[in-house]
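Morning run. Coffee first, then this:
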Amino acid sequence: MQKIKEQYAYKGWRNIIHKTYLNKADTPITFDVVENGDYVTVAAFTKDQEAILVRQFRPGPEQELVSFSEGYIDATETPEQAARRELLEETGYKAGKITLLKRLRTAYSTENHYCLVATDCRYLQAPQLDEAEEITTFTMPLDEFKRYIKETDDPQFVNVATAYLALDHLKWL
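And here it is:
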């Protein structure tokens, strides 16, 4: 498809762009695209193979969801640096080793989503949260975590892809 027009429909914490393309029949097709910054999700585990998780209110579903630590990559950071920073800020845990697992894209967004795994994490300090973050940190033993991510009736865990990438990388599946 050939892009013929692009304009902002909304500017806010995330922006919405209307992108118009000509299809093969020369018919204009307009898509709503979310303009969002690149971010990391860090699947973190303690030396005792416990998953380090956060419970946080999310405005989209208007409820608390469970996830790994996530956050935007600052302009001067690599994904690995952002993962270390976000893990420490949100949970108080310091990563031992961090490995980049995969970069993901989505169909209707501009972002790059970097999935990383952090191992040998140890608790260092109290979390340093932003005013918009109300986060509870908790750990879950590996066997319980592996069951949890497969539960079909519980949609609260939001990082299933990153979890499976990490467990596969660590040979813990």
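The domain at 39-169 is CATH 3.90.79.10 (Nucleoside Triphosphate Pyrophosphohydrolase). Good start to the day.
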